[in-house]
Structures are given as structure tokens and as C-alpha cells.
Design a protein that fits this description.
The protein is α+β, with helices and mostly antiparallel strands. The protein is built from two helices and 17 strands. The chain has a five-stranded antiparallel beta sheet with strand order 13-14-15-16-17, with no helix packed on it. The protein is elongated.
Length: 239
């Protein structure tokens, strides 16, 4: 048998439990709303950054109008040119490094001059209009078109590409000076006269090398240069 006072205590206890459960429910709902709001903001932020990043990338790719590769004694250099045909922006990159940046150029045609490589070889990008809003971009090296420069270079240099001990090497001989370059650096050499010509000796790592120069016996061919590494002839590379 339950007494009236005990009944009231039970009712108050039940109401207290219900009230506590209700407060706990509100707390959970509020926490969930806060988490959802935070997550939504985070998602929006990531999305905006992603769009901004993609827009910047597309904008850069849109302005990239020309890419050239130039083979010099110290290596093969990559030249990239950005030209904003609405803003007049001009940006020149050499091997990924920004060399020239000009913003808001009112004159859309013209030229940009800079240097390439260790020897500071002069390079010029010409911008010419070819009708309407179309433009032509040409690269000059030492005052010659890239094609003519490379043709002339093939007559004045020899290039060999080889692998020694798992390392790749690019060896270049400048015929007019007899300078030898290996992987972008001019190396020390020692020349000597032999019975049928000359030999230019040097070392690559622990390997003994020399370039032998002999007459071809033909006026048009001139002197023939051959690279010998560890008593093995290396075929010449065409660039």
C-alpha cells in the first residue's frame, strides 16, 4: 500500500527524470545543429578554395601560348611564355623560374629579351600580330631563329648521351674552343697530339674518357670527333 506522501515523491521523481531527458534531448539536437553548421562551413570553404585553385590553374594555362626547348652546352633549357591578349600580360619562364613579368601592357606586340644558361646566352621572344586577334610567337637565340641556331650549332658542337654506373651523362664538345661540358658544367681537359690527330682527355667520375679528332680526308666533312669511354666508342646523339 502506497501512502499519499510517497505517491507525490514518485510523481516528482518521474517529472524530474522526464525533464532531464528533455534537456538532454535538446542538448543533443543543438550539438548536432552546431556540428552540421561547422561541417557545412568547412565544406563550403574547401569547395571555394578548390574552385579558386582550379580557376587560377586554368587562367595560367589559358595564357601559356608558347613552349620551346633549347639545347645549349650546359643542358637542355625549357622556355615558356605567357601572353594575356586582353590585359597584355607577359611572363617568361626559363626552366620553371620566372625571369620576366609585365602586367597591363597596352601594346600587345613587341619583344622580350633575356638570357639562358650558364653562359648567359641571349634569347628574344618576338610577338607579332598575324591578323585579327591572332598572334605569332618566335624565339631567337643570339640573334638567329631557333631553327637556324640549332642547325648552326649542330655544325659547331658534338653531343653524346650515356649512362655510367646508373648515372646519366650528357657530354658536349664545342669544336671552336675545344671546351668540354658534362651535365651542365665545363670540365678540365688535357690535350695531346697523337699520330693520326689529337686527343682531349678528361674524367667522368671514375671513368677515363677522351675525344679523338681525326681528319676525314674530305673538305665538306672536316674533322671527325669520337668519344671514347673506358676504351669503348660512344655513338653521337642527335638533338
Amino acid at each position: 500500500m502506497t501512502l499519499p506522501g510517497e505517491t507525490r515523491k514518485i510523481e516528482l521523481s518521474a517529472l524530474s527524470c522526464c525533464y532531464s531527458a528533455f534537456l538532454f534531448f535538446l542538448l543533443l539536437v543543438g550539438l548536432k545543429a552546431v556540428l552540421v553548421t561547422m561541417a557545412s562551413r568547412e565544406e563550403i570553404t574547401v569547395y571555394e578554395d578548390e574552385v579558386r585553385s582550379r580557376y587560377s590553374y586554368l587562367e595560367k594555362m589559358t595564357d601559356l601560348v608558347a613552349v620551346w626547348e633549347v639545347a645549349l652546352s650546359d643542358g637542355i633549357h625549357k622556355i615558356e611564355f605567357e601572353h594575356g591578349t586582353t590585359s597584355g600580360k607577359r611572363v617568361v619562364y626559363v626552366d620553371g623560374k620566372e625571369e620576366i613579368r609585365k602586367e597591363w601592357m597596352f601594346k600587345l606586340v613587341g619583344k622580350e629579351t633575356f638570357t639562358v644558361g650558364v653562359a648567359k646566352t641571349k634569347a628574344t621572344i618576338n610577338i607579332d600580330a598575324v591578323g585579327g586577334f591572332a598572334y605569332e610567337y618566335t624565339l631567337e637565340i643570339n640573334g638567329k631563329s631557333l631553327k637556324k641556331y640549332m642547325e648552326n650549332r649542330s655544325k659547331t658542337t658534338n653531343t653524346w648521351v650515356l649512362s655510367l654506373g646508373g648515372t646519366d651523362y650528357r657530354i658536349v664538345l664545342e669544336k671552336d674552343t675545344m671546351d668540354v661540358w658534362c651535365n651542365g658544367k665545363k670540365i678540365e681537359t688535357a690535350g695531346e697530339f697523337v699520330e693520326d690527330g689529337t686527343e682531349t682527355h678528361f674524367s667522368v667520375g671514375d671513368h677515363s674518357c677522351y675525344i679523338k679528332a681525326v681528319s676525314s680526308g674530305k673538305r665538306k666533312e672536316g674533322i671527325i670527333h669520337t668519344l671514347i669511354v673506358d676504351d669503348r666508342e660512344i655513338p653521337e646523339a642527335l638533338e
